[in-house]
């Protein structure tokens, strides 16, 4: 135990206020171990390490270093080119559609920084999606990418109307339209089909019918059976499969169609996703936590690997149950497209900020989705307002940004991805320079002692990393818990998460600032640490003088009866 420069603290004394920690009095021969914002390596002698240790003894034996560093080619290249601080923290999700489904296009998106590929099961056939999934797995295996796969369920979308034509139809103010549940082939002038017979239930003459959150508006002037005769009050466009909502006295008319969140088709798609080993299932139109829990239970009985369930926030009801939904799910998507049909558009920015805040508090990753760069579906450059919107999501510390039509059907998908990448990098740099991460506050999450210790260790470690100005944080994690607790603090340095669990690696792809690495880990944590540093050194990815803050957490095993958690600061020699 008597290692020079080692600091042992009983767990009750570990404070989240690391700056008040007086290392000087504990570590002989080290002039100063932390310095705000500056470079640690000039201040600390090579090889000295500080260990905050909770539990029992440090592991001593160091095995022979062998094995491979499971670095994905894109992060590795980024590190070589831009250094630790230049690594992008915000993760990028691309919706895959006909415009980007070839192997070459997928490879270009992977090279451009796509962390997660999203397949929207609303569109196209399962065979088509299968082909894309296989291509992504092939690229991961053969070319060294680390792109996770997400399927997104269709959900029971009852609020859809269609005019029958393949493209958009113009709607003039003052024109009269019939919204009918009667089925017919092709298109009829001034007639729109609703996809659900109960679409007009509870609707009264005088109500307002809004298409796609404001693409066009109508007043209901007559009810004819289930059908509605409406007069256009605000001219605009009808897209195919447009979404609609009804409003009365400025408020959404809430209707409960009593349809399950997952339709029969969704269950078939979920079985398909499980069989193909996807990494995430995004659940559309989640209204409560039960729906999420049911799906998670179902997955745990059907799949030997862990598939993370993301809840999509896209209904008024889901917003009212935000807390329980975040708690039940493995992450959230702010699906601003459909959300904008159910709440006034001007409310979306505040709702987005609230959801990203709650998710970070509860340590769940969050994706900001829809229309981030909508104009790029058509044009090769974004509007200034779109760049401002993207930057705002990054400033809010969302874990991930998502492209929809921009990559799925647009002509400039790769360019849109590079806009997300560059805007993220720029705003992250600004936030770091402004020291904005120091303004983040966290509510305490852990209830059990081990969970509270893990949380304290990670909060302290992140604060130490910032104060010391270390180059990188290394963490060893089985289920990703320690990595995400670190990420929650949005530290300045990148978090390299070493795991020997493949599903954890793929899930961590969605977490802010985490670079997941697949390596063989043993029960001997000290050996794991030495091995991973040596592998990084051998590849030239860490160099002499680099300072790394190492966080480890070993759960009790047959050989070791006590949990052991530590924070060590190592300078590479
Ligand atoms: N696999 C696909 N095949 C064909 N078109 C697709 C595919 N995926 C997406 N698209 C097209 O890209 C557009 C945007 O895609 P996206 O899936 O994000 O739509 P969305 O309506 O926002 O999602 P959701 O239906 O989940 O609310 C869609 O309108 C659709 O035209
Ligand atoms: C992504 C999605 O489902 C939406 O924005 O509605
Ligand atoms: K969907
Ligand atoms: Mg949606």
UniProtKB/TrEMBL annotation:
Q: Which GO terms describe its cellular component?
A: chloroplast stroma
A GO MF term: magnesium ion binding
Q: In which pathway does it act?
A: Carbohydrate degradation; glycolysis; pyruvate from D-glyceraldehyde 3-phosphate: step 5/5
Q: Where is the Pyruvate kinase barrel domain?
A: 87-415
EC number per UniProt: 2.7.1.40
Record-linked Gene3D superfamilies: Phosphoenolpyruvate-binding domains, PK beta-barrel domain-like, Pyruvate kinase, C-terminal domain
- In the UniProt record, does the keyword Amino-acid biosynthesis occur? no
Domain Pyruvate kinase C-terminal, first and last residues per copy = 455-559
UniProt cofactor(s): Mg(2+); K(+)
Q: Which reaction does it catalyse?
A: pyruvate + ATP = phosphoenolpyruvate + ADP + H(+)
Q: Which key words are in the record?
A: ATP-binding, Glycolysis, Kinase, Magnesium, Metal-binding, Nucleotide-binding, Pyruvate, Transferase
Extract the InterPro entries matched here: Pyr_Knase (IPR001697), Pyrv/PenolPyrv_kinase-like_dom (IPR015813), Pyrv_kinase-like_dom_sf (IPR040442), Pyrv_Knase-like_insert_dom_sf (IPR011037), Pyrv_Knase_brl (IPR015793), Pyrv_Knase_C (IPR015795), Pyrv_Knase_C_sf (IPR036918), Pyrv_Knase_insert_dom_sf (IPR015806)
Family, similarity comment? Belongs to the pyruvate kinase family.
Subunit annotation: Oligomer of alpha and beta subunits.
Q: What is this protein called?
A: Pyruvate kinase
State the organism of origin. Eucalyptus globulus (Tasmanian blue gum)
